[in-house]
Design a protein that fits this description.
This protein has helices spanning 46-55, 77-86, 131-144, 151-163, 167-183, 188-199, 205-218, 221-228, 235-261, 267-279, 283-309, 314-331, 337-351, 366-382, 403-408, 449-457, 473-490, 494-504, 508-523, 527-543, 548-559, 562-568, 572-585, 595-600, 606-615, 619-625; strands at residues 414-415, 420-424, 432-436. The longest helix has 27 residues, at 235-261. Helix 8 (221-228) packs across helix 9, helix 9 (235-261) runs parallel beside helix 11 and helix 12 packs across helix 13 (337-351). By secondary structure, it is mainly α. Strand 2 and strand 3 (432-436) form a beta hairpin. The protein has a three-stranded antiparallel β-sheet with strand order 1-2-3, with no helix packed on it. It starts with 45 loop residues before the first helix and ends with a helix.
Length: 626
C-alpha cells in the first residue's frame, strides 16, 4: 500500500469552530476519529496493519545470513500471529512454557494453624502464666536492667518480685545469678552483692549458694561439651563451644572469689578449692587457680596471717604449700610459657601487696566513669610532651611572669679575652649575665670581669624568699616540668630555678608535686633529661627555692610505681638510679627513705631489693623491701 501522507506537507486540520467546535484544552470529539472522504490523513485498520506485517515475514532474498533455525518458516505462521495477538495477558513466569498463574477466582487464602504459628510476645500476653513463671519473668526483667548505678533501687525490686518467697524460687534465682555471672564476668562483683542482698532475706542462703557453686565447680568441661556438641556438628562448632565453656568457667571462678570477699563463702572452702585446681595437671585449671587467687589473694593472706598470730597456723601452712606447688610448676621445663609467666605475674602481684599492674575490668557507676574520664583527660594533658607551649597542657603557659618576650629578645653572647660571656637581657630584669663558658654561675652586674669573679666568690648558699603560691599543686608540677623542657633548649639554669621557687613558695605540698613531676619526666626521658632534673633540683635546694625535704618525699611518691612504669619505659629503673644517686651524692636525697616504700607495699620483691642495693641502701632498708 501507499505510504501515509506526511502531515507536515499537507494542509493543516482546521481548528476552533471549523473542527466541530473543538478548542485546545478540551476533550477531542469522537467525530474526529471517523475517516472522511476528504481526509488528508491516511488511516489503516488493524487487519490492514497485520497483513502488512505478514508481508515482511518472508526471508529476504539477499544480504541475510541467519541460521535456518531462527527463520520463521512455518506454514501456519499467520495463524500463530493471529492467535498471539488476540490472546489475553497471562501471568506467572512466562519464560517457562506452559507455566501460568491461576486466576484469582481459583485461589483461596492460606490455611493458618493457630497452635503452631509464630506469635509475638505482645500477642501472647493474654496467656495466663503460673505464679512461678510470672515471678521468674518479673525477676528476669529486673535483672536485665541492673547496673551499679541503680543497684540500690533494683536490688529491692528483685526481692519484691517474689524471688525469695519459696525454696524453689530461691534456687531458681541463684541459678539465674550464677549463669549471668559466668556470662558477664566483669559484673561478678555486682552479682555477688545481689546475693548478699538475698542473704539478708533468706535463712541458710549461704548453703544454697555454696551448693550451686560446688555443683558447677565439679562439672567437668568434657561433660559440658557433650551437652552442646555432637560428633556430626563439625570442628568449628566444637572450637566455639570449647572456648565458650572455658570463658564461663573462668567467670565462675571470679564469681566464687567475689562471694568470698563478702563472706558468703568461707576461708575453709577457699582453701579446699585452690589446692584442687593446682593439683590437676591441666593448664585450664591452673589458669582458673591464677584468676581466683588474683581476686581473693589479699584477703586470704591477711586472714591466714591473723590466724597464725592467734596460734592457728593451719591456713597459713596450706597457703605456703600452694606457693610451693606454684614454684614447682614454674621450674618444670614441661610447663608451657603462657602458664609459667601467668604464675610469675601472680607471684609479682603478691610481692606488690596484691596490686595488679593491669587494670581489671569491672562494673562501675556513672559517677566513677565520669571521674575516670576526667582523670584520663588530665593525665593526657599533663603528659603531653609535644608543642612549644610553655604551659605543657596547663592552660597556655605563664603569661603573667613575662619570660616569653624576654627569650625572644636575647642576643648571642659576646666572649671577651678572658673567656667570659656577656648575655644581654631586655629591660625589666638585670641587663646582663656573666658566666664562664660551660659554667652555670651568674652575676647580677654588667660591668666587668671583676664583678664576675666577685660573684664566684659569693656564698653559694645565698637564699631568696618567695611568696606563697596561689595556684594548685598540680599546676605547680606542670609549670615546673615545662620549665625543665625549656632549660634543655636554652641552657639557662637560673630561669627554671626561679620558676621552681615561684610555683612552690616554700610549700611542702607544692614542692612534693613539682619534684614528683620532674622525676616522672626523667624516668621516661634520656640521660640529658636526667642530668637536667638533677642540676635544677640541686640548684633549687641550694638557693632555697625548694625545701630539701620535698626532694625525698616527691621522689618516693613516684618511686613506688617504678616497675609499673618500666613496662612501657624499660630504661626507667636506670634513669631512677641515676637521678637518685646523684641527688643523694649532692646531699638532697635520703637513700634510707626508700625503705618506707616497702611499708606501702608498692615497691617490693627481688627487683626492688636489687635496685636499692645498687643505690647503696643499708641492710635494714633491704629487709623492708623483701
Amino acid at each position: 500500500p501507499a505510504a501515509p501522507a506526511n502531515p507536515r506537507t499537507q494542509q493543516a486540520r482546521p481548528s476552533g469552530a471549523d473542527a466541530m467546535g473543538w478548542t485546545r484544552g478540551k476533550a477531542l470529539p469522537v467525530g474526529l476519529y471517523e475517516p472522511k472522504e476528504d481526509d488528508k490523513v491516511q488511516r489503516y485498520s488493524a487487519a490492514d496493519l497485520l497483513a502488512e506485517r505478514l508481508n515482511f515475514t518472508a526471508k529476504p532474498t539477499s544480504g541475510f545470513n541467519a541460521p535456518d533455525h531462527v527463520i520463521w518458516s512455518d506454514d501456519d505462521r499467520v495463524q500463530q500471529l493471529i492467535a498471539n495477538s488476540t490472546a489475553g495477558r497471562i501471568g506467572g513466569d512466562v519464560s517457562r512454557k506452559g507455566e501460568t498463574a491461576p486466576e484469582l477466582k481459583d485461589c483461596k487464602p492460606l490455611e493458618v494453624n493457630e497452635e503452631t504459628r509464630w506469635k509475638g510476645k505482645v500477642l501472647g500476653a493474654e496467656e495466663e502464666l503460673s505464679e512461678y513463671d510470672a515471678t521468674i519473668k518479673t525477676a528476669l526483667v529486673v535483672l536485665n536492667k541492673l547496673t551499679m548505678t541503680n543497684f540500690n533501687k533494683l536490688s529491692k525490686q528483685w526481692v519484691q518480685s517474689g524471688i525469695c518467697d519459696s525454696e524453689e524460687l530461691i534456687k531458681a534465682g541463684v541459678e539465674i545469678i550464677v549463669t549471668k555471672a559466668q556470662q558477664e564476668s566483669h559484673f561478678s562483683e555486682m552479682y555477688a552483692r545481689l546475693c548478699q542482698v538475698m542473704s539478708g532475706q533468706v535463712q541458710n542462703f549461704k548453703r544454697v549458694v555454696v551448693e550451686r557453686c560446688q555443683m558447677e565447680f565439679e562439672k567437668k568441661p568434657e561433660e559440658k561439651l557433650e551437652a552442646h556438641w555432637k560428633e556430626g556438628d563439625g570442628e568449628d562448632e566444637k572450637v566455639y563451644w570449647t572456648g565458650l565453656i572455658k570463658k564461663y568457667y573462668l567467670g565462675h571462678m571470679r564469681f566464687i572469689g567475689e562471694l568470698y570477699l563478702i563472706d558468703l563463702i568461707s576461708q575453709k572452702v577457699m582453701l579446699k578449692i585452690l589446692p584442687t585446681l593446682l593439683g590437676e595437671d591441666d593448664d585450664e585449671k591452673i589458669e582458673c587457680f591464677s584468676k581466683l587467687f588474683e581476686t581473693v589473694g589479699y584477703k586470704l593472706e591477711q586472714q591466714a596471717a591473723h590466724n597464725k598470730a592467734n596460734s592457728k597456723p593451719a591456713s597459713s601452712d596450706q597457703l605456703e604449700a600452694c606457693w610451693e606447688d606454684v614454684d614447682k610448676i614454674i621450674s618444670d621445663k614441661q610447663t608451657g610459657s603462657r602458664i609459667r609467666f601467668m604464675l610469675l605475674d601472680l607471684k609479682e602481684m603478691k610481692q606488690k601487696g596484691w596490686v595488679s599492674r593491669r587494670k581489671v575490668e569491672k562494673a562501675k557507676t556513672l559517677d566513677e566513669i565520669h571521674r575516670d574520664v576526667a582523670r584520663e583527660e588530665a593525665r593526657a594533658q599533663s603528659g603531653n610532651r609535644g608543642g612549644g607551649s610553655r604551659g605543657g597542657g596547663g592552660g597556655g603557659g605563664r603569661p603573667a611572669m613575662g619570660h616569653g618576650d624576654a627569650r625572644k629578645q636575647r642576643q648571642q653572647p659576646q666572649v671577651d679575652s678572658d673567656g667570659w660571656s656577656t648575655v644581654n637581657k631586655p629591660a625589666g630584669r638585670s641587663s646582663s649575665r656573666q658566666t664562664p663558658n660551660g659554667g652555670g654561675n651568674t652575676s647580677p652586674n654588667s660591668g666587668n670581669k671583676q664583678s664576675a669573679f666577685a660573684a664566684l666568690a659569693a656564698s653559694p648558699n645565698a637564699t631568696k624568699s618567695y611568696p606563697k603560691p596561689t595556684i594548685e599543686p598540680a599546676e605547680s608540677g606542670k609549670r615546673f616540668q615545662s620549665a625543665i623542657k625549656e632549660y634543655l633548649t636554652n641552657g639557662d639554669i637560673n630561669e627554671p630555678v626561679t620558676i621552681l621557687g615561684e610555683v612552690t613558695g616554700g610549700s611542702a605540698e607544692h614542692g612534693n608535686v613539682a619534684v614528683s613531676k620532674a622525676f616522672d619526666f626523667a624516668l621516661e626521658g634520656k640521660d640529658s633529661d636526667c642530668a637536667a632534673v638533677v642540676a635544677i633540683v640541686s640548684k633549687g635546694v641550694e638557693t632555697g627555692a625548694l625545701p630539701k625535704t620535698c626532694v625525698t618525699s616527691g621522689i618516693i611518691e613516684s618511686l613506688e610505681f617504678l616497675f609499673d612504669v618500666a613496662i612501657d619505659a624499660p630504661l626507667a629503673p636506670k634513669n631512677a638510679y641515676n637521678v637518685c644517686s646523684k641527688l643523694a651524692d649532692a646531699g638532697c636525697f635520703d637513700r634510707d627513705a626508700v625503705g618506707s616504700i616497702g611499708d606501702m607495699g608498692g615497691f617490693r620483691g627481688e627487683k626492688a631489693v636489687a635496685w636499692a642495693q645498687e643505690l647503696g641502701c643499708d641492710g635494714a632498708v633491704l629487709d623492708k623491701l623483701r
